Request: fold
Amino acid sequence: MSASAWIQLVVFLVVLLALAWPLAHWIHAAMGGRVEWLRRLERPLLRLAGVDPDAEQSWLRYALGLLLFNALGVVAVYALQRLQHLLPLNPQGFGPVSPDSAFNTAISFVTNTNWQGYGGETTMSHLTQMLALTVQNFLSAATGIAVVMALLRGFARHSTETVGNVWADLSRATLWVLLPLALLLAIALAGLGTVQTLQAGQQVVTLEGQSQTLALGPVASQLAIKMLGTNGGGFFNANSAHPFENPTAVTNALQMLAILLVPAALCFVMGREVGDMRQGWALLGAMTAIFVVAVVVTTAAEAAGNPQLTALGVDAAGGNMEGKEVRFGIAASSLFAVITTAASCGAVNAMHDSFTPLGGAVPMALMQLGEVVFGGVGSGLYGMLVFALLAVFIAGLMIGRTPEYLGKKIEVFDMKMVSLAILLVPLAVLGGTALAVLLEPGRVGIAAPGAHGFSEVLYAFSSAANNNGSAFAGLSANTPFYNLLLGLVIWIGRFGVIVPVLALAGSLAAKKRLAAGEGTLPTHGPLFIALLIGVVILVGLLNYVPALALGPVAEHLILWSAR
Reply:
């Protein structure tokens, strides 16, 4: 990497940690009901909804409430899309969204995936963008925060059957964490040039003398929570590569920081919740180490460019600039790609389909790891904690001792839940990919031949099952086949992990806390960080090695052997 790319990475990480530390203090206090004046504000609102915030629930009741809440969200988002032609705030006069696309979009936004098979500015009315999509950007992120707080309580408590109140957690995450942050960021983005208006569009005359309508809308308000909630769904089809969403290098930097801000802060929240900040630092250290390597590899691959063009002397840009915005360049585009796929965001400021094979393989692999390298809001931390339990289990096998983590003995039921959380997602990814390349309705959407076409399909299902939402855009996925199959994979990827995680929370909360002994593995030092990184990479990627060999690895070898 160049010196400027290294400086950019270091400054990004320093600013991120400087912002995450105080935010963690606020999240811990707000989510725990420790701020008295917030409790006075929220209590009448919860009472109005028939909720007693002090009445806690078992993990099963917590999970059922969460499933019901999200199922109702799917129905609401689907109905708004199908009825948007009858509703106000539709200045473009858009008709109803097709049933299969509405189904896919409803599940996608409710699960924090934000996979978009449509062009936002040509499909969704302003009301649908605001009332359906933006609202779910808040609620899906709140769901992730609620789940991770339930799991942290499982570690922090002992000999109890409850993990919190799902309705109180969802309300606090939305009102006291996400809403204030989104308001501040939306004002900043609008002030820096991101569009925010209820106009349908603006007529302009191009340099060629032709008339053109530029699509407009309430972009900054949606963009803020899109990033802070690691949602990723763009108002425009070009997402954060569009100059109305991401006009300058400054807005680009703010968006990158916003994606990882809450996930990084939650690592410190964990330390506060369990009473040992070293545990949060250990997880953050493992995440950061993998993140830095991913940035270095992606940036180096894109800076190396296309060897066939270089051999012809036509690669004047000094790297692979295809699919990238000149105002961002290779380093900022590569950093953004790693951030958005390390988190469950899916926003893009460059087209990943145009990355080099190796440069595109890194974002794909980051999703396949389970997006635990910082990860999504809440989902990244609870995913990494699942890997931490697996790491101590493996260490226990090696020394012949019952594994423990944060004073809790890890037993048979816990490992069954860990196995479910880790294995269901690869099953959905590889099963969906196999169906798409075997069946004719899946193959007709593949535009590129050979290895790259396979990579497009593999990337799509990796993105869907891991609730990311970004795409190798060469795949024509807005068809009934892909909309229905991807929608199913998205739902499995979200709740096939959440339910086992909540079951883990209940199991851990019921256990007694054990005092650390001479045989207890320290889970806050360099040895454990190295073990955790090894488990994440080996176990997370092991299922995908054959598929990666058929896709990006084969394409990389073909490209460089043809120099």
